[in-house]
Write a structure and sequence with these properties.
By secondary structure, the protein is of the alpha+beta class. It has 2 domains: about 5-165, Jelly Rolls, CATH 2.60.120; about 170-240, Orthogonal Bundle (Arc Repressor Mutant, subunit A), CATH 1.10.10.10. The protein is built from 10 helices and 11 strands. The protein has a 4-stranded antiparallel beta sheet with strand order 1-8-3-6. Strands 2-7-4-5 form a 4-stranded antiparallel beta sheet. Strands 9-11-10 form a 3-stranded antiparallel beta sheet. Helix 8 crosses helix 9 (about 210-220). The protein is elongated, with a radius of gyration of 21 Å.
């Protein structure tokens, strides 16, 4: 627990358990509260109604179709978002690691329906800020308002890119795109996959054997070397050409 924070930010009331104050440094680092000191984050959250909830690994955090009444800020842990098609096939949209803001676009939409379910991949803790609390924070804190608009824009950009990938790329193209994105992030030709083949197959919306076949083909064509979660890019130029 951040004792320095506790000395500066007084408890919400006599029943306060300090359950969110230990995360104010994390909350001020990016996303919704970027640009605020941890003292300011603590003061902002303390001034409005809020709640902290804990979730165990494997627990459903949010069900698809629920009404979005709260902005959820993931304080610790990892979650994945997914939805189920009418045929019963599960599609993983993304995996999110704290700190992360969930459902900013649904909070003020006309229907406020959450389009995906959220599952805890690890034990998690989340801060819930009701719709009216967020409205109050946005009206009183311009920095948070700007951050909120940036979060919305980033989500729109991510989902647009995701939609284009699913609509226009083959499975081979999707995997190559994923590898090249990892190459950009990890800045190396020798990569470590962040997901198992089964998890990647769910993200791409295919069966695991289909993905395994694509990886094997790329390996046999000597475009990359694959062993477990280790991938080594052998011919980056040819991989990029495969995306066209």
């Amino acid at each position: 627990m951040n004792m320095q924070c506790l000395k500066i930010v007084e408890p919400c009331n006599e029943h306060c358990s300090f359950c969110f104050l230990q995360y104010t440094d994390l909350m001020s680092s990016e996303n919704l509260f970027h640009g605020l000191s941890h003292q300011e984050v603590g003061a902002v959250v303390k001034s409005v109604h809020h709640q902290v909830r804990n979730f165990s690994k494997g627990e459903v955090v949010v069900h698809e179709g629920d009404t979005c009444d709260n902005l959820i800020f993931l304080l610790s842990g990892v979650v994945r978002t997914e939805f189920m098609s009418s045929e019963g096939q599960v599609f993983v949209v993304e995996q999110l690691e704290a700190p992360a803001t969930l459902f900013p676009a649904s909070l003020f939409s006309s229907e406020r329906i959450i389009p995906v379910s959220v599952h805890a991949d690890t034990d998690c803790r989340a801060l819930y800020l009701p719709r009216e609390s967020i409205r109050e924070v946005l009206s009183k804190t311009p920095v948070v308002m700007t951050n909120f608009l940036r979060v919305l824009s980033n989500r729109l950009q991510f989902l647009t890119t995701k939609m284009k990938m699913f609509q226009f790329l083959t499975l081979r193209g999707k995997f190559i795109r994923h590898i090249l994105e990892l190459h950009h992030v990890q800045q190396s030709d020798e990569l470590i996959l962040q997901h198992s083949q089964q998890e990647l197959a769910e993200i791409f919306g295919v069966a695991r054997p289909s993905l395994a076949r694509v990886i094997r083909e790329l390996h046999n064509e000597e475009l990359l070397y694959a062993k477990g979660k280790k991938i080594k890019i052998i011919d980056k130029q040819k991989l990029q050409q495969q995306m066209k």
